[in-house]
Design the sequence.
């Protein structure tokens, strides 16, 4: 009877551990995105319309944590959820990942109109701060508060 009881205890411990770990990781990601972002909200310094109904964005952003840059993504809100928008960096970066402090953002050519940029576009940046997951910073949220 002792062996079966130990086996049951081990099985329950394994199940609880396998369930708790992803939950803790998910909660850590939410907390980090909301309370410890790598980048502060973007200040758009200039946005220029392009001939093909797009916009070129220039701005400034404050980097608060020393994490490795991975990606920037632009999303447009639709009635079905957020839709990934095509974007192109027009000028290659001077460094692979900027140091902590003020930094220049752009220029980025984004396939949204200037009105869509100001009303329904979200910009998210991904950084590698540790080996568990990528840290997301929402740096622009359609002209609304961050």
Sequence:
């Amino acid at each position: 009877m002792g062996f079966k009881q130990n086996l049951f205890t081990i099985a329950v411990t394994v199940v609880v551990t396998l369930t708790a770990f992803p939950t803790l990781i998910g909660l850590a990601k939410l907390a980090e995105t909301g309370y410890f972002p790598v980048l502060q909200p973007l200040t758009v310094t200039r946005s220029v319309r392009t001939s093909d109904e797009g916009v070129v964005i220039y701005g400034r952003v404050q980097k608060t944590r020393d994490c490795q840059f991975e990606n920037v993504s632009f999303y447009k809100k639709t009635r079905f959820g957020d839709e990934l928008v095509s974007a192109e960096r027009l000028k290659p970066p001077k460094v692979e990942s900027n140091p902590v402090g003020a930094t220049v953002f752009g220029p980025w050519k984004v396939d949204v109109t200037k009105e869509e940029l100001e009303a329904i576009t979200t910009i998210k940046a991904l950084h590698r701060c540790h080996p568990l997951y990528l840290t997301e910073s929402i740096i622009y949220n359609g002209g609304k508060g961050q």
User: Anything to note?
Assistant: The domain at 38-141 is CATH 2.60.40 (Immunoglobulin-like). The first strand starts at residue 43 and ends at 49. Residues 118 and 143 are 5 Å apart (CA to CA). The chain has two helices and eight strands.
